[in-house]
Amino acid sequence: MRVLLVPLLVVGFCWAGPIVDTNYGKVEGFEYENAEVFLAIPFAKPPVDDLRFEKPESPEPWGDVYQATQFRNDCTPHYRLVAQFSSYSGEDCLTLNVIKPKKVEKKLPVLFWVHGGGYEIGSGSQHGYEFFAKRYTPEGVIVVTIQYRLGFMGFFTDGVHGNYGLFDQAAALKFVKENIEHFGGDPEQITIWGYSAGAASVSQLTMSPYTRDLYSKAIIMSASSFVGWATGPNVVETSKELAEILDCPWERAKECMKKKTLHEIFDAVEKQGYTTGTIDILRWSPIIDGDYLPSNPEKLIHDAPVKPTLIGMSNKEGSYFAAMNMGRVIADFGLSQDELSKVDEDFISEIIGRKLLYNNRYGENREKVWEELLDYYVRQGKPEDEKLQNGFFVNRYSEVR
């Protein structure tokens, strides 16, 4: 018996993954090439039951070693079909992933990635961990990807409270600030980074009094807090309408909706409709709540500390929505692959009229605005070579969207 026991212990030891001791307990990950990977680490209590439609709370310490070896729940999207695409989707989803080099000889810079998806779909697992491990760990960079509540779960408001998805992002950033040193990271070198709605979120992180002192640099790719949909004008009305469909009195809508099943809320969302069909494209997005965003972006950016920031646009971003076949899930701007190949001057002109000038928008100035929009989006810079025109108008379509 003694002869057999020793090799078994040795084998068990050899299979143990890397372990890091955080402020909340130990986490065990795994090795991938030259990286150590830790998946689905909880940065907040599960936002379920009484914590649904509430700000996130710090996680309870865990006693046993937490097995951070696989992705877990994605956050519930606003659209039932998207939830069905995922084998793991649910409300208990406030987790983050850490991809770090195996060998750490000094404190390393950190990239804090916020996913996009129109504040309504997306996850911290959608890009996996392999790319980050291959691209960034050889350069001595730690990557953190996060999740936050989406759609009605993240941005329902009772007119006073809301922006739960943004508070989730703040909680994740605070967790990283306080724990990344255990992984070999430098809490004074955190670059927050995002694309599309993730970029708008990063822009909001740079401005909010909750988060503007928790990072060192920012990368904002293809959106910002200044785009119209980043602080949706229709969220309060959308919330009222959803509460009414669910027979929840507005004066106690939040408490009533805490008791509704996810199935009941999805049914109500389907009755309500997923999109607005206007240039104010999102039903669910952040609001100026007097708390996380205490004022408008113009005021907040003036008050925020000046830090190195890289801002850019993505070329032909509209093609992404066709490739993902998810455009109409987020907004009525989605295109199929076939439609994308046929985008031309007439198509863009029609989009401008239908999406930007709806309901007699701009009143007596409508024709003047119409001509200026056509000049910019249709006429200026149009290539003479017809073979190049589709790419040109796809890019213009991305800008209109």
From TrEMBL:
UniProt KW Signal keyword: yes
Domain Carboxylesterase type B: 18-387
Transmembrane segments: none
Enzyme class: hydrolase
Signal peptide: 1-16
Entries under Pfam families matching the protein: COesterase
Record InterPro entries: AB_hydrolase_fold, CarbesteraseB, Carboxylesterase_B_AS, Carboxylesterase_B_CS, Type-B_Carboxylest/Lipase
Gene Ontology MF annotations: carboxylic ester hydrolase activity
Keyword entries, A-Z: Hydrolase, Serine esterase, Signal
EC number of this enzyme: 3.1.1.-
Record family assignment: Belongs to the type-B carboxylesterase/lipase family.
Name of the protein this chain belongs to: Carboxylic ester hydrolase
Upper classification of the organism: Eukaryota, Metazoa, Ecdysozoa, Nematoda, Chromadorea
